[in-house]
Amino acid sequence: MRFGFIPVPSPLTSRSRVYELKARLDWGEPALTIIDIRSRCEFNHSHIMGAINMPMNELVERALVSLELVRDIYVYGDTDEEAAAAAAKLRSAGFLNVSEIQGGLPVWKAYGYPTESGIARVG
């Protein structure tokens, strides 16, 4: 009898593909945070399962209050450019392990990965 296994996920990089994040979640690594920087309305409509909402204008202030600077953080927005800007803000604030999720929610959904909606989760 063969037992399947989930391969060890790649280390965090400055930009991540959705399947890299999903592999890490499947591996069972809880020491990460997924941040959605879109508006609360957009977040409540649909977001990556387990993500927290920290709109761009509140991002650094809320992250500094609720997350450790060494925490692995994955961030996404409406565009890759917004995710890059958010990641840059977090890095400038002292966060050491920040990765931009390339393609954000649309690519996550295209892979058929789990999403949530109608839940006002905040970090």
Automatic annotation (TrEMBL):
Q: Which residues cross the membrane?
A: none
The organism sits in which domain of life? Bacteria
Give the Pfam families listed for this entry.
Answer: Rhodanese
SMART domains per UniProt: RHOD
Q: Where is the Rhodanese domain?
A: 28-117
CDD domains named in the record? RHOD (cd00158)
The molecule here is called: Rhodanese-like domain-containing protein
Which organism is this entry from? Answer: Thermocoleostomius sinensis A174
Top-level taxonomy? Bacteria, Bacillati, Cyanobacteriota, Cyanophyceae, Oculatellales
